[in-house]
Design brief:
mainly beta; twelve-stranded antiparallel sheet; four-stranded antiparallel sheet; 5 helices; 39% strand
Amino acid sequence: MDPNAFVRISVASVALKMPLASKAWVDVLSASSSCFCEIKLSNFPVQIAPVPLVSLKKLEPDYQVIAACFYLDEPSLRKLLTTSCFTSSLPCLEITVYASKQGSSCRVSSGKVLGKFALPVGGEWAVAKPLQVHSGWVCIEKSKADGERSGAELHLNVTIEPDPRYIFQFDDQPELSPQILQVQGNSRQTIFTCKFSRDRGWRSRNGFLDGSSGVESSKERKERKGWLIIIHDLSGSPVAAASMITPFVPTTGSDCVSRSNPGAWLILRAGPVGEDNWMPWGRLEAWRERGTKGGLGCRFQLVVDDVGVPSAGNFVSVTETVISAQNGGTFLIDTTKFRLDNQVCAALDNPHTSGDFCFSMNPFLTVGGFVMSVSIQGEGKCSKPEVQLAMMHVTCIEDAGAFMALAAAVDLSMDACRPFSKKLRKSFVPSDSCL
């Protein structure tokens, strides 16, 4: 599989120091303020991060903390490096530092500007190897119109590095058992096939793949359960699956699945013996957010123990997001700012935890950066999920298959969380079911 070219621009080890005698320093201390910065790059969404104050005795910032990341594909990078007829200069990476009162939110409207720094984008940003374009302290000052200098210094490291990704596209809705294509430039090649089923009453030997207990006996019963999608490679062998292990049921007095009682999918990989031997990899919980425009809430948890049946203690939360039910959106796993707690670190260090089925688990959790994204359509729309997957997390075709199962579960959750007062599409409904 050939990846698509992406680059990652990261801003890390941000810190601020100011002379003790400066007015800005006195203002910050007297108001018990905290500092934050607004980081802009061209037309990309603005990112906001806290800025720690560093005393003159301790001049070294935390080099492990990443304040912001921007991901650019090849066309976006090319556009960024191209000057237009309306301007003769290239854009800049801009960092504006604010002070805000303690307890207030990191919002521009609530902050006082301490200074700004702009790093021009240069042609060297297009190199195909890691490059540090800035490292160290710089003086920041207010604009000339403000008529004063703050005397503050800002520390930051700006790094550009390749971040190649595989791109996949479902060629139809997941419930229609589509093919999954790998997209590379203008080329599209079938890489997986899907098989969707519901209420088949089928179990695997270890019980993880459970089609549940057959078609509903009562037409008045409100629940969606037993959905199952299996990912096969081109030889027809199953490599991964998503099994609905917790039914999606409406909360009492409502017709929606609530956050307090979410439905859940178990994401599995096929074991070496074949279809009857599956190993758990992760769990996806989904619910409908409250409100008139309630979106789809998703929480993904990774299994950190491959021994026995998964339990609450075997999962670590990796990401949680809300996707617009009306317009759709993107489910994202990015561990740039992810931190493991001591309990999880101990589990990963346990020799009984590591194994063939914990594929890419340690890099997934301990190496910060983009992992995957899946873009889906809103409720009731024809959704053909597009998946982007970091190359560093794929060592074999089975690795990619597990992420495809997760992507399918995210997309199917939009339908599973559809208000029960609304009917599902016919593709979900057996002839003898009322759902």
